[in-house]
Amino acid sequence: MSSITKRAGQLAGAVSALALLAACDPQTPAAPAGDAGQTAAETAQPTAEDARAFVERAGQKLAAVSEEASRVFWINANFITYDSNWLAAKQSERLTKLGVDLAQEARRFDGVEGLDADTRRKLMLLKESLTLPAPAGDDEAAAELARITTELQSMYGTGEVDGKSLGELSETMASSRDYDELLATWVGWRDVAKPMKDMYAAMVDIANQGAGDLGYDDTGVLWRSKYDMDPDAFAADVDRLWGEVKPLYESLHCHVRAKLGEQYGTDKVPQDGPIPAHLLGNMWAQQWGEIFDLVAEGDADPGYDLTQLLKDADYDHMKMVETADNFFTSVGFEPLPETFYERSLFLKPEDRDVVCHASAWNLDDQDDIRIKMCIKPTADDFKTIHHEIGHNIYQRAYKIQPPLYRGDPNDGFHEAIGDMIALSITPDYLKQIGLLDQVPSEDKDIGLLMAQALDKVAFLPFGLLVDKWRWQVFSGELTPDDYNEGWWKLREQYQGVTAPVDRAADAFDPGAKYHVPGNTPYMRYFLAHIFQFQFHRAACEMAGWDGPLHRCSIYGNKEVGEKFNAMLEMGASKTWQEALEAFTGQTEADATAIQAYFKPLKDWLDEQNQGRSCGW
Ligand code: X8Z
Ligand code: ZN
């Protein structure tokens, strides 16, 4: 539910009261634990009225502590030092304790009769809001958990290889076509993660105890319980969705593998097995847009390169941000406040360590919204700016809700808002804002779709497997000895990629991905890659569009914006199914929108793949 991200915990988003909790983990209230629970605690048989009063106080208490914590976390992420880590760990510990205390208190009302629906929902949100709960009543464990999560985040944020930052290494992964250089870069970054493994395992033990104290079998069950449905039904639902998009992924995989075989040789890229993970243009092989030039040819040329257009038009970071801001205002949202521009971090500072992984924040749960990003003038970052501002727009929309509802009802929504808007960055739109002179004709559509698929379709199995791995870790199905092997099993099974070299026994490759040391749940991104197409299709239908979905832009459409805002403003006050229905008329995640979007490409790929043997 929460939007965000933070500190010991996650990344991304909003720092609403509840979100903060979700980010960390906790236990006995550091400060005034007492008052949130006293009434109920003193009452042997709590009543519905006690419950109502409790959720009211709990919301106020969370709101009261979250702003200070957010500001400490902001400073920590912008200046990673011994002291800022120390301060952040203290805040994290305090929030975790408070969160556990409130969750335990909320459990006292289980079974109480006569609860109104609103109070019941708030109690549920309180019980489920933590990402990594500490064991109840164990101050030492809460402190240890906060130290570990802060340290892991810091290790990732300060990681470098031979003086090169992750940003520089990522540029090599994107642009180099030298097999050995790519391999060295890929291996180098993974060395940063090795020392995380023991700490990670200790963290898992503590959080599992905390989850157990809250009545969950393990932390993975807690994570799966946040979707207004039974946790097993949620796991089955993501598998259903994956089954629906897998044929599309397999067609893309087959074509890309064939092209990589041509580039690097079929001895390096065997045509009947998984693809070596360092050849896909991305440090984690999660989005493949950077190898567009290797896989597209002939009619798969989109006719323009957005990175080049940005460069030609002298777009710097500020112009990129203003352009994204302008898109949101074109559909009726208020412009971002002055303070957004004054207080955001847009560029990587030369002189200090910062967490460069992009994130969006709401520091006061009202209008102090910001992003923190190390922007480069590329098409990817242009889209990521829309992604981050989408978080901010959502945060600002639900500020009207009471504190416990200032979040999303499904974290996949938070990740889908800006991405849905970015799907409207069509050739027509680029022409309207003066970046493109001439809209390419329809015979360029395969190229447009290919560029999009290399990011959006390629991402799907990665988005799915990161938490498949964590679910196995939390359940004990994977023990620390098997962490890495288990990771590569899933990478191969779902993505059809493989480690290019044998991995050392002490390797901890999952730790080389931000969200693992950052403890940001990841299934949200898989969901978002389904929802954003569902939102986009609904928006285009509302706009009366009857052309292909990939040519539809809602730029300037205030009617669509108003309906979208109505869903955003609901925050977490309704189930995600209800919120989804309000905008799309549907009550389920539905992969038919992404299928429809890519249908012409799927047909083209299947033609290209004739005579090839696909699969791995
Ligand atoms: O982490 C992010 C955003 C911030 S919430 C930049 N994303 C995932 C990633 O980078 O791994 C967006 C796409 C997936
Ligand atoms: Zn995000």
TrEMBL record:
Q: Name one GO biological process term.
A: proteolysis
User: Does the UniProt entry include the keyword Signal?
Assistant: yes
Give the signal sequence positions. 1-22
The protein here is known as Peptidyl-dipeptidase A
* GO cellular component labels: membrane
Name the positions where chloride binds: Y227, R524
For this chain, the annotated S-S bridges are C356-C374, C540-C552
Q: Name one Pfam family in it.
A: Peptidase_M2
Q: Which UniProt keywords apply?
A: Disulfide bond, Glycoprotein, Metal-binding, Signal, Zinc
Organism encoding this protein = Rhodothalassium salexigens DSM 2132
For the keyword Chaperone, the answer is no
Q: Where does Zn(2+) 1 bind?
A: H387, H391, E415
An MF annotation (GO) of this entry = metallopeptidase activity
Give residues annotated as binding Zn(2+) 2.
Answer: H387, H391, E415
Superkingdom per UniProt: Bacteria
Question: Could you name the active-site residues?
Answer: E388, H515
